[in-house]
Amino acid sequence: MTTQSQTQEMFRRAEAVCFDVDSTVIKEEGIDELAKFCGVGDAVTEMTRNAMGGSVTFKKALSERLSIIRCSREQVNKLLTDHPPQLTAGIKELVDRLHERNVKVFLISGGFRCIVEHVATQLDIPLDHVYANRLKFYFNGEYAGFDDSQPTAESGGKGRVISMLKEQYGFKTVVMIGDGATDLEACPPASAFIGFGGNVVRPQIKERSLWYVTSFGELLKELEKI
Length: 226
Fold this sequence. Notes:
The protein is α/β, with parallel strands linked by helices.
Protein backbone atom coordinates (compact mmCIF):
# COMPACT_ATOMS: atom_id res chain seq x y z
CA MET A 1 0.00 0.00 0.00
CA THR A 2 1.47 3.35 -1.05
CA THR A 3 1.56 6.03 1.64
CA GLN A 4 1.70 9.83 1.54
CA SER A 5 5.46 9.83 2.13
CA GLN A 6 5.97 7.34 -0.74
CA THR A 7 3.84 9.56 -2.99
CA GLN A 8 5.98 12.55 -1.99
CA GLU A 9 9.15 10.61 -2.75
CA MET A 10 7.79 9.58 -6.16
CA PHE A 11 7.02 13.21 -6.91
CA ARG A 12 10.57 14.22 -5.96
CA ARG A 13 12.10 11.67 -8.32
CA ALA A 14 9.48 11.75 -11.09
CA GLU A 15 10.74 11.69 -14.68
CA ALA A 16 7.45 13.17 -15.88
CA VAL A 17 4.67 15.15 -14.22
CA CYS A 18 1.25 15.35 -15.87
CA PHE A 19 -1.15 18.11 -14.89
CA ASP A 20 -4.87 18.36 -15.39
CA VAL A 21 -5.73 21.87 -16.64
CA ASP A 22 -9.24 23.05 -15.66
CA SER A 23 -9.47 23.94 -11.93
CA THR A 24 -5.85 22.76 -11.51
CA VAL A 25 -3.39 24.65 -13.72
CA ILE A 26 -6.03 27.33 -14.38
CA LYS A 27 -8.57 28.67 -11.88
CA GLU A 28 -11.66 27.97 -13.96
CA GLU A 29 -13.33 25.19 -15.95
CA GLY A 30 -12.71 26.11 -19.60
CA ILE A 31 -15.96 24.59 -20.85
CA ASP A 32 -17.97 26.57 -18.25
CA GLU A 33 -16.24 29.81 -19.27
CA LEU A 34 -17.00 29.08 -22.93
CA ALA A 35 -20.65 28.36 -22.04
CA LYS A 36 -20.95 31.62 -20.07
CA PHE A 37 -19.41 33.49 -22.96
CA CYS A 38 -21.97 31.92 -25.31
CA GLY A 39 -24.87 32.72 -22.96
CA VAL A 40 -25.66 29.17 -21.71
CA GLY A 41 -23.60 29.15 -18.51
CA ASP A 42 -26.02 27.78 -15.90
CA ALA A 43 -27.14 24.72 -17.86
CA VAL A 44 -23.57 23.71 -18.63
CA THR A 45 -22.14 24.30 -15.13
CA GLU A 46 -24.55 21.76 -13.66
CA MET A 47 -23.54 19.19 -16.30
CA THR A 48 -19.85 19.82 -15.57
CA ARG A 49 -20.46 19.16 -11.87
CA ASN A 50 -22.05 15.80 -12.75
CA ALA A 51 -19.19 14.91 -15.09
CA MET A 52 -16.52 15.78 -12.50
CA GLY A 53 -18.32 13.73 -9.86
CA GLY A 54 -18.15 10.75 -12.21
CA SER A 55 -21.94 10.29 -12.37
CA VAL A 56 -22.12 10.22 -16.21
CA THR A 57 -19.62 9.00 -18.81
CA PHE A 58 -17.18 11.71 -19.79
CA LYS A 59 -17.85 11.51 -23.55
CA LYS A 60 -21.62 11.73 -23.03
CA ALA A 61 -21.23 14.77 -20.75
CA LEU A 62 -18.86 16.45 -23.20
CA SER A 63 -21.12 15.81 -26.17
CA GLU A 64 -24.25 17.05 -24.35
CA ARG A 65 -22.56 20.22 -23.12
CA LEU A 66 -21.13 21.06 -26.53
CA SER A 67 -24.48 20.52 -28.23
CA ILE A 68 -25.86 23.26 -25.95
CA ILE A 69 -22.89 25.63 -26.37
CA ARG A 70 -22.43 25.22 -30.17
CA CYS A 71 -19.61 27.80 -30.13
CA SER A 72 -18.20 29.19 -33.35
CA ARG A 73 -14.48 29.50 -34.06
CA GLU A 74 -14.86 33.26 -33.73
CA GLN A 75 -16.43 32.93 -30.25
CA VAL A 76 -13.55 30.71 -29.07
CA ASN A 77 -10.96 33.19 -30.36
CA LYS A 78 -12.82 36.08 -28.74
CA LEU A 79 -12.98 34.22 -25.43
CA LEU A 80 -9.19 33.78 -25.46
CA THR A 81 -8.70 37.47 -26.24
CA ASP A 82 -11.30 38.92 -23.86
CA HIS A 83 -11.16 36.33 -21.02
CA PRO A 84 -7.86 34.45 -21.22
CA PRO A 85 -7.55 31.52 -18.79
CA GLN A 86 -6.26 32.60 -15.35
CA LEU A 87 -3.24 30.63 -14.17
CA THR A 88 -3.43 29.24 -10.63
CA ALA A 89 -0.96 30.92 -8.24
CA GLY A 90 2.40 29.13 -8.13
CA ILE A 91 1.97 26.98 -11.26
CA LYS A 92 4.46 28.97 -13.35
CA GLU A 93 7.13 28.68 -10.65
CA LEU A 94 6.45 24.96 -10.21
CA VAL A 95 6.64 24.17 -13.93
CA ASP A 96 9.82 26.27 -14.27
CA ARG A 97 11.38 24.37 -11.35
CA LEU A 98 10.43 20.99 -12.86
CA HIS A 99 11.91 22.04 -16.21
CA GLU A 100 15.14 23.14 -14.47
CA ARG A 101 15.37 19.61 -13.04
CA ASN A 102 14.86 18.15 -16.56
CA VAL A 103 11.48 16.71 -15.59
CA LYS A 104 9.14 16.44 -18.58
CA VAL A 105 5.85 18.28 -18.02
CA PHE A 106 2.62 17.37 -19.83
CA LEU A 107 -0.89 18.87 -19.83
CA ILE A 108 -3.63 16.23 -20.11
CA SER A 109 -7.07 17.75 -20.29
CA GLY A 110 -10.65 16.81 -21.02
CA GLY A 111 -10.98 20.46 -22.13
CA PHE A 112 -10.22 21.96 -25.52
CA ARG A 113 -6.89 22.03 -27.25
CA CYS A 114 -7.34 25.63 -28.48
CA ILE A 115 -7.62 26.81 -24.84
CA VAL A 116 -5.01 24.41 -23.40
CA GLU A 117 -2.40 25.39 -26.01
CA HIS A 118 -2.81 29.00 -24.89
CA VAL A 119 -2.03 27.86 -21.32
CA ALA A 120 0.93 25.70 -22.43
CA THR A 121 2.49 28.67 -24.21
CA GLN A 122 2.33 30.76 -21.02
CA LEU A 123 4.09 27.96 -19.12
CA ASP A 124 6.73 27.19 -21.79
CA ILE A 125 5.36 23.67 -22.19
CA PRO A 126 5.93 22.32 -25.73
CA LEU A 127 2.68 21.95 -27.68
CA ASP A 128 3.50 18.29 -28.41
CA HIS A 129 3.20 17.78 -24.62
CA VAL A 130 -0.47 18.81 -24.75
CA TYR A 131 -3.25 16.18 -24.88
CA ALA A 132 -6.77 17.60 -25.08
CA ASN A 133 -9.98 17.49 -27.10
CA ARG A 134 -10.25 19.10 -30.50
CA LEU A 135 -13.27 21.18 -31.46
CA LYS A 136 -14.33 20.90 -35.09
CA PHE A 137 -15.66 23.80 -37.18
CA TYR A 138 -17.19 24.06 -40.66
CA PHE A 139 -15.37 26.16 -43.25
CA ASN A 140 -17.55 29.16 -42.31
CA GLY A 141 -16.42 28.87 -38.67
CA GLU A 142 -19.64 27.36 -37.26
CA TYR A 143 -19.48 24.56 -34.68
CA ALA A 144 -19.25 21.10 -36.28
CA GLY A 145 -18.74 18.86 -33.25
CA PHE A 146 -15.62 17.51 -31.58
CA ASP A 147 -13.06 14.86 -32.49
CA ASP A 148 -14.31 11.88 -30.49
CA SER A 149 -11.31 9.76 -31.50
CA GLN A 150 -9.04 11.63 -29.03
CA PRO A 151 -8.28 9.50 -25.93
CA THR A 152 -9.16 12.49 -23.70
CA ALA A 153 -12.76 12.38 -24.98
CA GLU A 154 -13.34 9.11 -23.08
CA SER A 155 -13.62 8.15 -19.44
CA GLY A 156 -10.23 6.60 -18.64
CA GLY A 157 -8.61 8.61 -21.44
CA LYS A 158 -6.04 10.31 -19.23
CA GLY A 159 -4.76 6.90 -18.14
CA ARG A 160 -4.46 5.84 -21.77
CA VAL A 161 -2.38 8.95 -22.52
CA ILE A 162 -0.07 8.17 -19.57
CA SER A 163 0.37 4.54 -20.73
CA MET A 164 1.26 5.88 -24.17
CA LEU A 165 3.79 8.35 -22.71
CA LYS A 166 5.44 5.60 -20.65
CA GLU A 167 5.75 3.48 -23.77
CA GLN A 168 6.94 6.34 -26.01
CA TYR A 169 9.52 7.86 -23.64
CA GLY A 170 10.35 4.88 -21.42
CA PHE A 171 9.33 6.75 -18.24
CA LYS A 172 9.38 4.65 -15.06
CA THR A 173 7.92 7.26 -12.67
CA VAL A 174 5.03 9.43 -13.85
CA VAL A 175 2.99 11.54 -11.43
CA MET A 176 -0.53 12.81 -12.21
CA ILE A 177 -1.81 15.97 -10.49
CA GLY A 178 -5.43 17.08 -10.69
CA ASP A 179 -8.69 17.94 -8.98
CA GLY A 180 -11.21 15.52 -10.49
CA ALA A 181 -12.37 11.94 -10.97
CA THR A 182 -10.72 11.54 -14.40
CA ASP A 183 -7.34 12.50 -12.85
CA LEU A 184 -7.61 10.10 -9.93
CA GLU A 185 -8.53 7.19 -12.21
CA ALA A 186 -5.33 7.76 -14.25
CA CYS A 187 -3.38 6.14 -11.37
CA PRO A 188 -2.48 3.46 -12.33
CA PRO A 189 -0.96 3.63 -14.95
CA ALA A 190 0.47 6.79 -13.31
CA SER A 191 2.93 5.82 -10.56
CA ALA A 192 1.30 8.27 -8.13
CA PHE A 193 -1.60 10.72 -7.95
CA ILE A 194 -1.60 14.03 -6.09
CA GLY A 195 -5.03 15.57 -5.46
CA PHE A 196 -5.22 19.32 -5.92
CA GLY A 197 -7.78 21.46 -4.09
CA GLY A 198 -6.40 24.96 -4.63
CA ASN A 199 -9.38 26.09 -6.73
CA VAL A 200 -12.15 23.66 -5.82
CA VAL A 201 -12.25 20.87 -3.24
CA ARG A 202 -14.07 17.75 -4.44
CA PRO A 203 -14.70 15.68 -1.26
CA GLN A 204 -14.53 12.27 -2.96
CA ILE A 205 -11.13 13.13 -4.47
CA LYS A 206 -9.79 14.48 -1.18
CA GLU A 207 -10.85 11.28 0.62
CA ARG A 208 -9.21 9.01 -1.93
CA SER A 209 -5.93 10.93 -2.39
CA LEU A 210 -2.88 9.68 -0.51
CA TRP A 211 -1.46 13.20 -0.79
CA TYR A 212 -3.85 16.14 -1.14
CA VAL A 213 -2.53 19.69 -1.51
CA THR A 214 -4.31 23.03 -1.71
CA SER A 215 -1.45 25.06 -3.18
CA PHE A 216 1.40 24.55 -5.63
CA GLY A 217 3.67 26.03 -2.96
CA GLU A 218 3.41 22.69 -1.10
CA LEU A 219 4.80 20.91 -4.17
CA LEU A 220 7.58 23.45 -4.61
CA LYS A 221 8.53 22.98 -0.94
CA GLU A 222 8.71 19.22 -1.49
CA LEU A 223 11.18 19.69 -4.36
CA GLU A 224 13.45 21.70 -2.05
CA LYS A 225 13.99 18.61 0.11
CA ILE A 226 16.35 17.08 -2.40
